[in-house]
Structures are given as C-alpha cells and as structure tokens.
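LOG
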Amino acid sequence: MFDLSHAAPRAAKLTVLGIGVAFLATACGGSPAPSASSSSAPAAGGISCPAPSASASAGSSEAPSTGPVPPSTTTTDVPLKLGSLLPTTGNLAFLGPPEIAGVNLAVKEVNAAGGVLGKPVQVTHRDSGDTKTDTATQSATALLAGGAQAIVGAASSSVSKTVINQITGAGVIQFSPANTSPDFTTWDDKGLYWRTAPSDVLQGKVLGNYIATCGAQTVGMIVLNDAYGTGLQKYVKESFEGAGGKVVSEELYNTGDSQFQAQVDKVVAAKPDAIVLITFDEAKSIIPLLAAKGIPGKQLFLVDGNTSDYSKVFKAGTMTGAHGTFPGTFTKDAFKKSLLTVDPKLKDFTYGGESYDAVNLIALASEAAKSTKGVDIAKKLKEVSEGGEKCFDYASCVTLLRNGKDIDYDGKSGPVTFSDAGDPTEAYIGIYEYKDDNTLSPVQEEFGKL
C-alpha cells in the first residue's frame, strides 16, 4: 500500500477517488536560474510529500518474443502505411524525440517479425508544430496524400482538434499517444480516433489528491489557456478541493506568450502552499521567475506537458523536491535501452511507450481485420486490447492471432483496454520527484480505472 506516514495530518481527510485509483507500492552549461535572494518565499504550509517506496525504480519489462513467427495466411497487395504527426517544432518539441523513437522501434520490431499481412510496414514522419502555425494541417494533408491508413499523433490535444476531422473524415485512423483532453471521448470521429494516453480526468484527480497528501492546504495555478491546460486545471482543482483544500489563484496565459511575470506575481501574492504549473515548454521561462520570488522547488507540482529533465536548463538545486506526473507506467530500463538503439541521443522517454503501443495495436488490428484499410483496422482495435490471451509485443501477439487465438495486448505504457469511444479504460499515472541535479526520480505509480 501507499505509505502515508510522512504526510501532514490533514492527509487523513483525503477522499477516495471516484474513478477507482488504487495506490500501489511500485517496483514499487544551460541557462542558470536567477538567484532566490531578490525576495522571500511565502511559507510552504507544511509541504512534506510521502517518501518513495524503497523499491521504486524503472525495473525490468516483458522480454520481446524470440520464437519463430508463422507466416500470415492472408496477404495484402497494399502494405500498411503509417504516418506520424508528432512535434519537432513548437512548445511541445521536447516530446517529439521519444514519441518518434517509440514509433520507429515498433515499426522495426513489426518488420523484423515479418511485417503485417506479408508486407513490411511503411512509416512517414511529419511535424505537428503547435497551434501558432498551420503545420499540422499541412502535414496531415501530405500524409493523407501519401496514402497513410493510420496516423500516430498529434501530441497536443489542441493540435489534434485542428486535424481530427480532416483525418477521420478521410477514413483514416488518428491514434494519439499523448492526447488527454476529455473532449475526444464524445467527438464525432466515425470510430476512427483512438489514444493510448488516458483522459485528464485521471491525471487531474491523481495530482490533486497527491498534492493534498503532501500537506498543502492552498494551491495556486499557472495554466495554458487551451483544451489541454484548462481541462487538466478543472480536474486538479476538483480533486484538491474535494480533499479539503482551496485553490487561491488561477492565472492563464495563451499559446505564443513569452512574458509571464504578471501571472507569477499574482500567484505568489496569493501565498499558496503549492503551485501547479499546467504548461508546456513555457515552464522553462516560468520556473526561473518563481525562483526569483523565492519559491523553492518543493512547492512546485508539474504535469505531463512539462515534467522533463531540467539538468541542462537550470542550475543545480532549482527543482529539488518538485514533483511531476505523467500518464503511463515507469519506463523500464530494458525499454529505454531499446529506444536508444533507434535514437541514441534520447534524454527523455515521455510517451515513448504510448507511441510504441499505438503502432503495435494498429498492426495487430490490421492482422485481425485481414486488411490495411483504416476503417477495417479501427473495427478490430478494441478486440485486440481485451479479453484474450495476454501478450506483450508484436511477435508473440501476431503468433497467437495467426494460430487462431484471441489476444489481449498489454504494452509498455501499461495495460491497454479500450472503451467503445477509443479511450483507455484503465491506466497508470506515474509520480516523479526532482533530485538536486534537476533530473527525475520515480516515486510511485497509481493505477486507475475510468
């Protein structure tokens, strides 16, 4: 069980999450930050987060299948063509490399196992950019013109909203490894939109409750004013206030903004015990402003859009004690090594597992459908995610399929079981703590059902 012995007394007031979150014991020279001497910090109202489990680590993962894969009994004249619509520019560009590596690793393994329906899978990568440009629309147009039957991306919920009708309207699957906006659950997508990242309903509830276990009674927020930011803001607030806390300041900014002093000043003036940053790469500008106001790292709580390695961005100690969350189980060491074989420069692995799983699920659904058409593949995605024999990589899963077995794919991001709306119905949220060198250390995983 999750150890609450280090939490402040008010942690006892925590409400049980209505979505079935269970606390688990887990296996279980950049720009310097400004000096904190320019003003004094508001007192952190008893911030003392639960200590991580002694066994919390990114341990081993399921080993890939090494046995022979039987040939497909059905072959196709049209190979499975994938596109990726992932960020290499814009305010989420730091997420692009691990996501692209996840796609490439999966394609490599699928093709090593003989491909899909007797043909190697083809993949074309395009930049999604962000909402300041129409890069995503141009990229989606190019991928569709090139015959993509499924497109992995975008990372940003707001970017996906600009292209979802274009992609699904063409009879092509859009499969995001990172979209978390609840809006997609009810989108009229003709059954063609899917995702491996859970809705922010889960991440928001986990984060809000975790902040309460750390003893915070008041929270301030700096929030990106888009579908991702305001959606996650809503669920963090509901969860924290449901646990007896109070949100005392909520300051918004817009995509493309470069000045954040006004938001920082207002949040700090409210003297919250904890500050939640629901941002993308703008955190690199916001955190130094908070440090200059004397805010210590332990008062900061980040989310998947900005929980990243800051060891080469800020001076040592800037982030000490800060916490962050992002969907998915802890990235296991074996999987990190595999990702590094396709991109040796990787420093961050966020959503690499979700991207890898997206490709495997598409490939397996194509085999199950005996078709490479997007509309046919979509009809089999839920089926390959539930109810059958457990398997953990393409080779072992496709072997079962070709032997007439029903399969239940569980991936690198955790269990994947889809709802009729294409959402994961269960997922892990990982909680991380920053060390003195501004790198991340796993604290715990929380499993929840939606």
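LOG (cont.) second protein
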Amino acid sequence: MSGDRSVPAHPTARDRDRPFDPPPELAALHARGPVSRLRYPDGHLGWLVTGHEAARRVLADPRFSARSELKRVPVARPGTDPFYGSPALPGWLVDMDAPHHTRLRRQLMGWFTARRTRALAPRIERIVGDRLEAMAALGGRADLVEAFALPVPSMVICELLGVPYGERASFQRNSATLFRIDATAAEAAAAMAELDAFLTELARHRRRAPGEDLLSALAAGGELTTAEVAGVGALLLSAGHETTAGSLGLGTFALLCHPGEAARLADDPSLAGSAVEELLRYLTIFHFGVPRSPLEDVVLEGRTLRAGESVTVSLSAANRDPARFADPDRLDLARPASGHLAFGHGPHQCIGQHLARTEMRIAFPALFARFPGLKLAVPASEVPLGEDMGFYGVHRLPVAW
C-alpha cells in the first residue's frame, strides 16, 4: 500500500478553482466515500474524512487523540516541526487530550459563555462603530482588512485578555508567522518564543497587579502556572484575532461578489444570525482541516483506521457535504446552516465561538449600513488571497464607497 502512488495528497488553497469554494479535489474524493486514503507530505499514508457525519463522529470520539506528539498536517508546513511530534507547549490545550485539556478548558469556559458574550455586545458595538467612523474618514477608499476586519477582533480580544492594544504590531506579526504555510521551523520557533516571552512577562505583571481581565483571573487564581497562563494567552490572542479577522475579510469579499445576498442583509439586518452561520459554513476558513490520530483501531464508515495512523478531518468538505446541506455550493444567507463544523465539534470545539459569532453578527450589518454603496475597488481577481496561510482569508481587500 505504501508504494501506491495513486493515493492523492491533500489539495492546497492554490488548487482552488474559485476563491470561495474548496479545491474541487475534495468533492471528488468525497464522491468516492466519506473516508478515504490520503498521502501525507512525508510519503506515509493516512486518512481523510470528508463526510459531515463521519467528521462529527471523529471529533466527538475520545479514541481520536488531539495530542501534538501524534499530529501530522496534510500539507507541507515546516513551521509545525518545532511543535508537532513532541508534547504540547504549556497552556496549549488544543494539542492535549483529557484530563489535561479538560483542566485548562474548565478555567476558561466561564469567560466564553453565550451569556457573558452577550454582555460584551455593547462594547463590541462601540468598537465596530469607532472603526467604521475611522474608515469613513479615509475618504472613499480603504483596505478593509487594515481598517476594519483586523482591528475589530484585535481590540476585542486585547480587552478581554488584558493585553495592551498598543502591542498589536508585535503580536500580529508573530501570529501571522505562526500561521504562514511557508514559515520555516526557525521562523516559527522564533515567533513563538517572542510571543511567549511577551505573554509570560504580562502574566507575571498580572499576578502582581491583577485587573478585571482574563489573564489577571488566571494568574491570580493560582490554578495555573505562569507558563500555562502565558500559553493560554498566546493561544487565545493569536487564534482569537486571526480567525475572526479572516472571517470578516473573506466574508465581506464573498458578500461583495454576491450582491444579491449583500442586499438581503442590508435590507434586513435581522438576517445577521443566519447570515453569519451560512458564511461560516460556506467559507470555512480553517481550510486544511483538523488532525487527529486513533489511540486504538477504530472502524469508521466501513474502513479500519489503525492506532497511530494520521487522520485529517476536512471541515471544508464536511461543510459542503450534500447529504447534510442541500445545494451546498450556493451561498444563501437565509439557509438554516446550524450544525456546520466551522468551529469544529466535540470537546475541542472552539472555545471562542460565541465571541466570534457576536463580533460578526454586529460587524457585517453595521458595515453595510454605514457604507450602503460599498464595492470592490479592484477586480475580484486582483484581491490577494491568503493561500499561504493556515487560516484562509484575504491579505488585503481594497474597497470603495
């Protein structure tokens, strides 16, 4: 089997035919079945899960490990070399199984409940409004990523964590390096070291002089070590602004390329909830999927996945599974898209999902209300796509109004 060169490799974003659709190879693989063989960059054979129901089963099953020492990514990413294949960094709960994952997640859950996130909505509305006014002052043309999509989630996560927003240039640069597909192992390790040093010093400061923010609560609570507080902070800070910024930028691009859907949202802001769910499903910015490895032999959809084999759960393919979503390649803001897997599923489902949803539900209607004539300032083909990033999006989005 290892010599069978007919087994496909995972497609990359550069294999996309259209900017908002997953590579067509994923649909072709899914047509053969919800679980198929996949060749990884080092040549070994693992598995690709493309079916929605099969993906849910894997992500909810504790027999499939998320431990970093077992993880392999389906595309060549040298920047993961310092982190995968060895135990998780302190605080990086996404790379842990229970009970370590459970212990850390329990410390965070109260800060990310739907109720607590709703309480943040007025502050998020003010941040969104301020950024829109600053964007309007630019005089009719702007890069929406720089002016709006990136600063909104960056400000929100900074305030929640207690990170000075004035430090954004450093942490945004390091986060971007960590998520770059072509980052070298040395570049990624250096970015992580710099980010960790920054959060470690901040955690020590918060332990001495706590505020009302999340880092202060973790540092003063005494349940976590300083290294764990710093690691949790680095994880939430980097993923907390990169993912939502990507969703806001790419989501706006998609709406501008689907003017009928954009008009529906502008005419009826009550569509914001369903619009956000549909954009999350349709775009699925975590485009390479979720790595897992079975701790024992598991039969899935008639295939035996052996203990220790590499498994990639393709969230993009699962969210375009026609068995779960009718006409899945069509963007329909009124579609009941609940049940999508853009935030994952099971015990590792994104802890910040309520915060991200709230930011997007506020940001999209406010953007189109403030700029009813918003349009692309360049042809769609000239928008630079984030094909080189672990979170798919747009590097820049030139707009005019």
